Amino acid sequence: MTEPTHPFVMLTVEPGSMKLSVTSSMGAETGLQLCYYWPLLDNPATQVMRYKIKALGLTKILKQLQHERPVAMTISGGKIYLQSTEFADLLGDYSAGKDGAKYWLEVVADEYSRNFEMLCINKALSVKLVAADLGRHLKIVEKYIDLSPQNYKQDLTLQLYFTPGQVSIQGQVLADFVAITQPWCSVRSQPEPFISSTIALACKLAVKVVSLLTRCAGEVAVTLLGNGLLIERPGWALWIKLATVTRDGQTLEKQLEAGFVDTGCELQTSILLNRLPRIAIADHVEKEELHLMTHNKTHPNLHDEFMLKMNQDHVGAALTIQTIHPLAPELDICCNLGSLQLVLNTLPMKSRWIFLSPQQALLFCDEAKTIRFVMACRPPRVNF
To answer: What helix, strand, coil percent values describe the chain, rounded to 5?
Structure first.
């Protein structure tokens, strides 16, 4: 979580709480600040000690030590010596390991610095969420808007819209939308009266958090701060810089809800997932343009089948999908194959899809409407 202009971390020994922490500074480029905590097994120190050290050096030294054993630290002469040991000893005599290797870090500074302080605001909205679910939802939303053909690689953001009892993770690129609702596990604190809040995160920052969250068992505490989002659990805390909100979360929710005037029909997820690989033959499958075509009004199988076609990168393919569908007669529209595959892989087997005729778009959702995708379709550029 460091960058070339911010290569240091603050190592803090707290005798009172028997805790050692390592905190990065707020990076100008990363927009992230991370803090890890470890319990101290032994601590002869009598006061809080703070040491500014090189982050990369600490990481490389720890990789050389035996992970299953405690780490002993000896602080002497402006250096912090580290070794694997059976018993931790902060201020004991330092000796080399069994292989004769010695490791130490030079102390760059040994004084308090606000650059490494993680600030929190009292009475802020703070809730607990299932960590792995939050990480997975952030990844799906980021991936969907990244795949959008309407994405011209501008600085993309996603939004978190907090309402009582739940948060909606949202993404939008022009007419492509996605929203995934996740319930709160519990509330740590909330302002009175409660006011729904929308915050935005840069996608490039959200992606960096995903791998950390998806590896966590249990819950994380998520706190809305004035200029950042704080994610915490026992052992670490992460501060994320907020981006500018471009669209109110409530407005997006209302726009999605308006699409459910029609009930559509059941989405045969397994049939489509089994058939789509047969037509995925473009040079770059995620960017393949897929044609959805239906029969005319008098065809006997108008509502029971439709065609998928592609003609791209000097190759072409066509196949018939035999399943009920909500598409209008004599329809010929295009969507992105990568986006469609992501939608089908995300939704549960029992889901629905709706054709939004005025927008010429497809709306996909699960039965509970907690996962919703709007896929803007385009007129064909190639005639078959």
So the answer is: 20, 40, 40
